[in-house]
Structures are given as C-alpha cells and as structure tokens.
Amino acid sequence: MTAPSAPLSRDHPRSDRLGLVLALFALLLAPLGLLADKAVVPLSIAAALAGGLALGRPALPWRIIERPLALALGLFLAWCLIASLWSFEPLEGIKLALRVAVLVCVLLYLASLARHLDDRQRRRVALSLACGFAVACLLIVVELAFGGPILNLLEGPTRTDYAADSRLNRGVSAVAILAWPLAAFAWRLRQLVLALALPAAVYVLTLFSESSASVLALSLALPIAALALLGRGAARLLLALAFVGALFATPFVVDLVQRSDLAQSRAIPETGLYRLHIWSVVSDRVTERPVIGWGFDSSPKLPTGDARPFRPGEKIIPSHPHNGGLQIMVELGAIGSLLALAVLFIIAQRIDRLARVERACALGMTITVLGVANSAYGIWQSHWLAVIGGAAVLFVAVQAAPADR
User: Fold this and answer.
1) Inter-residue contact 56 to 13 (CB < 8 Å)
2) Nearest 5 degrees, angle CA 293-CA 295-CA 298?
C-alpha cells in the first residue's frame, strides 16, 4: 500500500509483459484463496519470478525494493530467526522462520514491481481482480446455498460441520480483504455507488457464512474507513490506535471480559468464549517471559499450568493462539513486538501519503486484515501471509500511476 514509483514508458513492451503477469495474479488470487489456499504461495512466487524476468534489468531487487520497509522487515525476520534458538524445537523453528522470510521477501518484491505499472496496465490488473473477485463471490454463494459441493468435490467431504465451515471461511476472509482495493479503483472511475456498495455487500455475504472473524473485522473496518474520510488527522489517529491495539490490547481485553462476567453471559458465542479461554492462558505466559518471549513458533507447546481444556479431550492451545498480536508477544517478546510495530509504522506512513479515498480504503483493508489476524489464523501460516501480501500488492497495482495523479 505504498505510493507507486514512476512507471516505464506507456508503450514499453516490458511494462506490457509485467502488466500481464500481475493481471493473471489478480485474476487467480481470490478464487485460489477459496478453492486451494495453499496454492496462493506458489502463485506469489511464480508471479514474482515472471514479473522480474518480464521487466528485466530495471527489476533487479536492490534497484526497486523500498529500503526503509525492507530494513524494518529484515530486522523483524532476523529476530524471528534468532528467537527460534530458544523455542521448544529450534531446528523446526529455524526452518519455518526461513520459509516465512523467503515468502515475505517475495511479496515485498512483487509489490515493488507493481509500482512500475503505467495507468493502462493498472486498469488491466484492476479489471482482472474484479473478474476473479466476482468468481470467488459466486462460488461462495454456491457453497453456502448447496452445502459446499465444490469444496467437497475438490477436497472430499468433511467429518464435522466445523471443518466444512473452516475451509469455506478462508475464501470469505480473502474476499473481505480484496473488496477494499476494488472499492478504491471503483472510486477512481467515479463509480461512487459501486465503491460504497462493494465492502458493504461483502459484509452481508459474510453474515451468511460462519466466518465470525470476517464479520467482526468488517464490522470494525466499515465505520473506521468512513471516519477516515473526515481527514488525514482522523486517519492517523485511527491507524495508530489500530496498530497498537492489535499488538498489545488482547491481555487487557481478556482481563476486562473476565472482570465483567461477560464470559458467563450469552452475549459472546461459543467460538468467542473458546478464543478468550486460549488468550487467557497465553496471556499468562506472556508475563513469564516478557522481553524475549518463549521462542519463534512455540505457541502450540507452551506450558498451560493447571488450566483445563475449554472442550473436554481437546488441547488447551491448538496449533496457534488464533490471535496474531498475542502470538507475536508470547513468542517474540517485547523486542519482537516493537520490531513488528516499527514495520506497521512504516506501512502507516505509506498509507498516510495516499489521496483521501484511497487512504480510507487502505485503512479499511488494514483493519480487516488485523481483525481477521487477531481472531482466526496463525500469523506464520504461509497461505494467510500470501493472501495479506497479495492484497497489498494489488492495492499498490490499482492506484493511479504518478503521471495520472
């Protein structure tokens, strides 16, 4: 979500080839996010390689990657690698940290490539994104209406309703995020009704799904994006509160819920209570190693003391805490959390430079990502990182080229 740099000449064949690569990426991202989320990772790698080859020498990484963001991400990823050394399984932690680092570098490079598109190519990418987005939404409607026939055909029937809902929720989360770059592009085309209706329509779609994370995320993102239209100062304040809150607020929220007896009421659904139970246990572990954390990817094996499972016979902490900010805090400590905050601060600077409507849409997408990340997926899951990064790449790609601003 950075401001694009100067594109190549409008008639340059290299720009045309790069535009085709990113248009194909835009077309496939949403459908694959629904039907085969693990394929989003090879899609991102293939797009970065093909885009780099298409652009040639101007696309050498050290020429186009933005240094401040690359430095901040490099420091954060280096700390992840270091923190693997005191995790419960250091070798496995190192392997995962390296995989995450490679994927993040690929996505950063792909976003840098997107900044070199001219306006004609940006329109092609946006139209491809619109087609892929429409296909994904139609598939979700079919899955919801007929009990998941497509995913059952591709992946086989599931043993439980929860498993069926979970695999559909991946696509729901993807379209919730991708609605925002499309809304920004629609506003550029002066399609004001479409720009306003897209995120709202996706919100209605999420209400018919079981993706409580997407419902929560869009419930926050829609009013916050509207408030961001008031001006740059409002957007800055909202971004600051969102980033700091996403990283550090969960232990305080858990404590507040416990003190208010909301956990014993019917105001919170069972899935929410389950997450609060996980977060309570993990928050206790944060206070035991607050500076350096328990080690990268150590969440599933954290000691749980005398805590009892939320559901009899199940693990107290599943494969991840279902909260990205809390996962960073418990695994990487205050050092990793501050490095993550530095990355988010640089992203906030880039969002702040955008025009008013693009800035509001970027803030809406950011809140959607944070809302889902802090209530659903593990922060190191490759498919989730690829969806987030891919959405950021496309947001860059559909912005107006510098000469057209």
Assistant:
1) no
2) 110
Whether 330 contacts 299, CB under 8 Å: yes
Which amino acid, residue 267?
A: A
Longest Cα–Cα distance of the chain, Å, equals 67
* Tens digits of residue pLDDT in 59-105: 888 889 989 999 999 999 999 999 999 999 999 999 999 999 999 99
Instruction: Give the contacts of 210 (CB within 8 A, at least 6 positions apart).
Output: 165, 168, 169
The pair of three-digit structure tokens given for residue 392, joined into one six-digit string: 């950021």
Token pair belonging to 26: 């835009």
Measured CA to CA, the distance from residue 197 to residue 209 in angstroms comes to 19
Q: Is 362 helix (H, G, I), strand (E, B) or coil?
A: helix
CA 360/CA 352 separation, integer angstroms? 10
Two structure tokens written together for 287: 């206070």
Neighbour-count burial of 212, counting CB atoms closer than 10 A to its CB (0-12 exposed, 13-18 middle, 19+ buried): middle
Rounded distance between C-alpha atoms, residue 48 and residue 113, angstroms: 8
Q: What is the pLDDT of residues 40-53, one digit of tens each?
A: 999 999 999 999 99
Q: What's the half-sphere exposure (Cβ side, CA atoms, 13 Å) at 269?
A: 7
Tell whether pTM > 0.85. Answer: yes
Main-chain phi, psi angles of 283, to 5 degrees? -60, -35
Alpha carbon 237 to its chain's center? 21
Task: Give the span between the Cα atoms of 165 and 319, in whole angstroms.
Answer: 18
62: three-class secondary structure by DSSP: helix
The confidence score (pLDDT) of residue 51 equals 94
In a 13 Å sphere around the CA of 338, the CA atoms on its Cβ side amount to 7
Q: Which residues contact 10 (CB under 8 A, 6 or more apart)?
A: 118, 119, 120
| Residue 107 · residue 393 · CB < 8 Å | yes
Tell me the CB-side half-sphere exposure of residue 95, using CA atoms within 13 A: 4
